[in-house]
């Protein structure tokens, strides 16, 4: 029987961050991944035409390059082939009437751009960022810390209290993005530029607490840009797996774990679906959601999962879905504003109200009549992605339902759910809308691959029925209520069994943060 210090279940990038740290610290570690390659939702494939590399799921890594794992592991990852490429501009927007805007990593340029949109918006942008500055240190510190800990409780208390009362930060934290944007900026283009980012953080612009994440994205992208690995997103997870192996760890694929074994209250190993038992002498780290953990992997261990935790795990909720359209293009999209061709990630949108409407349609189970389209064309910054002169595009729709109840435009028959016909009809709608902003787009398409919620569900159990972000990020399932109110953060009901990944603090996104937090816990001084 094989024995390791630590067995890691699943190889999402967070799990690989933990494994890499453990291996570097001299621990015997094995990662068991069910899919054919390590990396989970960080994956690059020739999905359309040979020679065109598409980031199947995630592509942009600003949350990773601004995080602590990259700060520490960056040089070793670079030596193993990870190089980030950045665009001239980080984010942009194109709205009807050729109203556009972009942001970059140059503060002065951003103030000038905001001022161009509306007199006074430049100063408003400066004030917004300056007002947050005193909180930046503690807030970013929390992103790298166990939230459910006494030390974090003190930081949270200090952030949210001032002079014996709740602080301005506490109030700002709870605002909606709409409220923040409408009170800060006069320009509707500024609203359209920033509001869609709430969706990338699993929120919507009319949701309580969405202003906080809008400001977080603004800070992250205007400091880091919109970096993506040369050669494709998967270079990150390949480098993490290589780092783990270089230090003696193992990363195995095609190994689904069906059971975590518990003896005398401690995790002692796992059993895979092919019947192998792999022993863990110190700990098991599970890169899975609480529903899989408590209702499947631990379900056979008598008396281990208390009834309350089982109930909460059964109540773990998934959010909206995602459609991602990959295009191989004979030429890059030509936007009315040429700067958008040199922008990391842009939104093609009717603006804040249009976004509000499409999110509401998705929440009600409807295909949105006019979705907001997130578009990136990574070959502009990284020519290795496709043949010279050509382009790849990722069109991402986050205002789509998981389960279909109809079509807001009344055109697509959704009776049988997310069928290929529905996927393709919706993709046609998206391309038609996108062509209003980049008229050459439809004529340049050489190949197309559409991903819808059922495809996500099939690929990764952590997407549940097709949620790209591993479980709803509504306030009632965030922060100290995530993954479960009864077991917040990375600790589970078994003392040496830890969780990492999108279901845990600080949530989804290629940030590596939960992997980092658990790695520090497992390699800390008290762990020997
Ligand atoms: C379409 C899409 C686009 C996105 N775009 C971006 C983006 O541009 N930027 C960004 O920051 N984020 C993006 N995200 C979100 C981001 O990709 C994810 O939040 C992040 O990659 C999740 O990482 P993770 O560590 O939680 O593990 P995951 O990526 O969820 O991986 C978990 C792994 O564990 C494996 N596994 C699960 N159960 C078992 C088991 N029992 N046995 C063995 N293996 C198991 C799974 O097969 C999987 O490989 C996107 C997500 C999607 C779906």
UniProtKB/TrEMBL annotation:
SUPFAM superfamilies, A to Z: FAD/NAD(P)-binding domain
Stretches of the chain forming a coiled coil according to its record = none
Q: Which organism is it from?
A: Streptomyces luteoverticillatus (Streptoverticillium luteoverticillatus)
* Assembly with partners or alone: Interacts with COX5B; this interaction may contribute to localize PYROXD2 to the inner face of the inner mitochondrial membrane.
Which residue numbers delimit the Amine oxidase domain? Answer: 16-397
What this chain does, per the entry, is described as:
Probable oxidoreductase that may play a role as regulator of mitochondrial function.
This protein is called Pyridine nucleotide-disulfide oxidoreductase domain-containing protein 2
Which InterPro entries does this one have? Amino_oxidase, FAD/NAD-bd_sf
Q: From the UniProt record, which GO molecular function terms apply?
A: oxidoreductase activity
